[in-house]
Amino acid sequence: MRIFGRVRQRPSTDWRLATNRAFSLIDDGRYEDAGALLTRAADLEPWLSESWFNLALLHKFRHDWEQARAAGLRAVALLERDAGAPDWWNVGIAATALQDWPLARRAWQAYGLRVPGNGHGSLAASGEPLGMNLGGAAVRLSPDGEAEVVWGRRLDPARIEVLNIPLPSSGRRWGEVVLHDGAPRGERTTAASGSPGGRPSVYPVFDEIELWAPSSVPTWVVLIEAATQADRDALERLAADAGYAAEDWSSSVRLLCRACSESRMPSEEGDGLALHDPHDHSVPGHPGPLGHTAPDGLWSPERECGLAAPGSLVRGLLDGWVADSPDTRDWRDLEEVC
């Protein structure tokens, strides 16, 4: 793990030994032991911004946001440059986790980002969320477990609203907002859509840190019979028109090894915000794509779909979808899974 070097003079040997040992312990998940060493390093070199940056980083790993904010503010107070330091990014993440919106605005602006409502107007003074609407991106849910990459909408530099319907193994739901780390780990590319030179769009993949805002909308899995792709699309439109979501997991989910998931991977459809942009489930090895299409590429009518809708609505939605074309549509085996 890299330790950023921006020092006025070379730190002491004891500081370097304690810090290097601490990051080895962090890599092993031994946060308490690492914290004792980084606290000792800060006592040895309190004038060094890295001492407090490293402590802020540790507290971020532990999700101790009060301590991360305090250490991060100590770090930025000792900086020698005005903008762009990663210390400010960590402060922004901690402030966002704590919903300290004035400090979050200050941190993102100090890093060099344009932030709405950062003047003397009512928005800056009210303490409301930033609402920067930074476009599409992907986020890796449960990055240390059964990782799954889903598409979402970036609300600000540290939060993404999930737009796919995650698989139940992730423990996440459609519409939830997750706090994410600042450094992308992987990229997804989508087909060019009228861009100059026909170049594809590239979207970063961020790692989830924790759930920021839960969703009350449950996830269901259902087996549908859809004679054509248009029949499947009609279900997704019907759910979207009702303010919820349906997603054909048979075609939208692919299995990737972790190395592929963390590299630049193509996403065959959409613009990073569309329903049919594939999301990824990372597993050991290199299994290739998962789907229920026939080997010759023909459409397979039986589809496994995820639905995000209240229990009071989900059966009526499916029955209404079938009623619109009973000869080409059917459903069975509805189950709430998350």
Which of globular, elongated, flat, extended, rod-shaped describes the shape? elongated
| Amount of helix | 25-40%
Mean of all residue-level pLDDT scores = 84
- Regions with little confidence, pLDDT below 50 for 5+ residues: 1-7, 120-126, 270-276, 283-295
Can you describe what's shown?
This protein is 35% helix and 24% strand. The chain is an alpha+beta fold. It folds into two domains: 13-126, Tetratricopeptide repeat domain (Serine Threonine Protein Phosphatase 5, Tetratricopeptide repeat); 133-338, no CATH class. The strands form two sheets. The protein has a five-stranded mixed β-barrel with strand order 1-2-3-4-6. It is elongated. Mean pLDDT is 84; it is low at 1-7, 120-126, 270-276 and 283-295.
Keywords:
single chain, 338 residues, alpha+beta, Serine Threonine Protein Phosphatase 5, Tetratricopeptide repeat, 2 domains, 5-stranded mixed barrel, 4-stranded antiparallel beta sheet, 11 helices, 35% helix, 24% strand, elongated, disordered N terminus
Quick take:
The chain has helices at 13-27, 31-44, 49-62, 65-77, 86-97, 101-111, 122-126, 229-241, 249-252, 258-261, 311-323; strands at 135-141, 148-156, 159-162, 177-180, 187-190, 201-213, 219-226, 245-248, 253-257, 264-267, 279-283, 302-308, 329-336. The protein is an alpha+beta fold. It folds into two domains: 13-126, Serine Threonine Protein Phosphatase 5, Tetratricopeptide repeat (Alpha Horseshoe); 133-338, no CATH class.
